[in-house]
Amino acid sequence: MLKATQQMTRAHNTQLVMRTIHSNGPISRADVARATELTPPTISEVVYELIESGLVEEIGFAPSSGGRRAMLLRLVDGARQLIGVDLSRRDFRGALANLRGQISHRIELPLGERDGEAALGLVYELVEALIPAASKPLLGIGIGAPGLVDSSNGILRQSVNLNWRYIPFRSLLEDRYGLPVYMANDCQLAALAAYTYQNHRENPMPLVVINVGWGVGAGIVLHGELMHGDPVGAGEIGHVVVVEGGPLCACGNHGCLETIASTRAIVARAQAILDANPESSLRQFAQDSRRLTLEAILAGFEAGNEDVRRVVREAGRALGIAASYLVGVLGSCKIMIGGSGDLLGQFLLDAMQEELVKRTLPALARATELGIVETSSDMVILGASAMVLQHELGVL
Ligand SMILES: [Zn+2]
Question: Which end of the chain, N or C, is more open, meaning fewer C-beta atoms within 10 Å of its C-beta?
C-alpha cells in the first residue's frame, strides 16, 4: 500500500516537473521548484531521471543575476515520437509527431468502399506503415474517430458511416503493438488541438469548436480539460433537433442540426430548390445543369447566388439555435466554427450571431465570443497526439 502510494507520488511529481519544463523551459531547477512547490532534493532527483531518459537536457548557464549562475533545463522535443490517427475522412490518415506536435511523416490510405472489418483492417495497415517509420521510441497511439467513443475504455461504441459497433480499439491495438492507445471522438480532438496549438490557453472561457462538415459535431474544452462525456457523447450536437418536423435524419429523428447545417444538408437543400425549379439560377452551377456538388455550392455562394445564400443562412440560424443551448448550459463561452472555410464560415457566423442574440439573455450573448477556427487537415491528428502527450507525460 505504502509502496503503491510512493509510486503514485513519484509519477505525479515527474509529470508536474515535465509539464513545468515543457511550458516554461528553458528554466532552472530553482524556478521549477518555485513553480511546482516541490523540494529542491525532489526536483534534483526527478530532473536527473528525466535527463537520463533523454526527455530533458541541460543547455547551459543562465546570464548571471548576481549570485551563482543557474543551469537551464529544456525539453528535448524530438526525444520521443507518437502516432496520431484520423479516421474521420474518406482517406484514413496517420502521422508521426514529436513532443511539440510537430508532424514528420504523413500517410493517407483511401477507404474506398470499405466498412466494418475491412475498414478496421485499414487501421492496422496504417499503424503498421507508421511504426517502422519512427526514428525515436514511440510513446503511444492516439486515434480520432467519428461517432460515439468511450474514451476512458478506448472503445468505439458506434460509428454509423463506417458500420462499426462496439470495437474495443484500445485492447485490440495494445495487444497487437504493445503501445498505449488512446481514443476520442474526432470533433473533440479538433477542439483539443485548437486549444493546445492555437493560443486559446490564455482564455479562461470554455472553448467550443463546432465542426461543420459532412456531419456536425462539437468538442468542448473546459478548464483546460477536454470533455469526453461519461461514458460518451459530449458535444454530440449534430442530432439535437432544431427544426420541429424538419428533414429526416440518418439517426431516425426529424430536423436534427445535421439535416440543416452540415455541408451535406446544404447541398441537398439547394438540390431540392433546383429540382423543384429546373430553371432556377442554381442551374448554371450544376453539373449537366442538374446535379449540385459542394464545389458547385461554394461557387454559387461566391457568385452571390440568392438561393445558395438563403440555404447557408438557414444553416447559420440552425447553428445559432444550437449555440444558444450551449450558452444556456456553459454560460458565456468561446464558440468557434471549423471545417467550412473562411468565406462560408463568416457568413454562417453572422447568421448564427443573429439567432443567438434572439435566443439568449443579452448579457450572455454579448459575453460570448464567436469566431472561425482554422481547421487544417491535421487537426484531428494533432488533437490525437496532444491526447497521448497528456496521458503519457502529463504535458499539454
Ligand atoms: Zn439525427
Answer: N
Helices (H), the chain: 2-24, 29-36, 40-52, 116-130, 169-177, 186-197, 258-261, 263-276, 294-302, 306-330, 342-359, 362-367, 379-393
pLDDT, position 2: 73
| Set of cell numbers at residue 185 | 471522438
Domain match, 276 and 307 both: yes
Q: How far is CA 256 from CA 90, 248, 250, in A?
A: 23, 8, 9
Distance 4 CA to ligand 1 centre (A): 47
Which contiguous run of DSSP H or E holds residue 166?
strand 164-167
Cell of residue 179, nine digits: 503501445
User: How much distance in Å is there from the Cα of 394 to the middle of ligand 1?
Assistant: 36
Q: Are residues 213 and 175 in the same domain?
A: no
- For residue 256, the CA-to-ligand 1 centroid distance in Å is 5
- Beta strands at 164-167 and 155-159: parallel, antiparallel or unpaired: antiparallel
Cα(122) to centroid(ligand 1), Å:
27
Looking at the structure, tell me whether residues 39 and 153 fall in a common domain. Answer: no
The Å distance, Cα 240 to ligand 1 centre, comes to 7
* Sheet with 91-97: strands ordered across: 103-110, 91-97, 81-86, 138-145, 181-185
Q: What is the pTM of this model?
A: 0.90
Task: Provide the CATH number for the domain around residue 67.
Answer: 1.10.10.10
Amino acid at 305: N
- Kindly state whether residues 48 and 68 are assigned to the same domain: yes
Same domain, 41 and 133: no
The answer to whether residues 42 and 96 belong to one domain is: no
Q: What is the pLDDT of residues 310-358, one digit of tens each?
A: 999 999 999 999 999 999 999 999 999 988 777 788 899 999 999 999 9
Domain that holds residue 133: 81-194+379-393
Q: Do 147 and 52 reside in the same domain of the chain?
A: no
Answer whether residue 2 is part of any domain.
Answer: no
Determine the 3-state secondary structure of 4 from DSSP: helix
CA angle 135, 138, 142 (to 5 degrees): 125
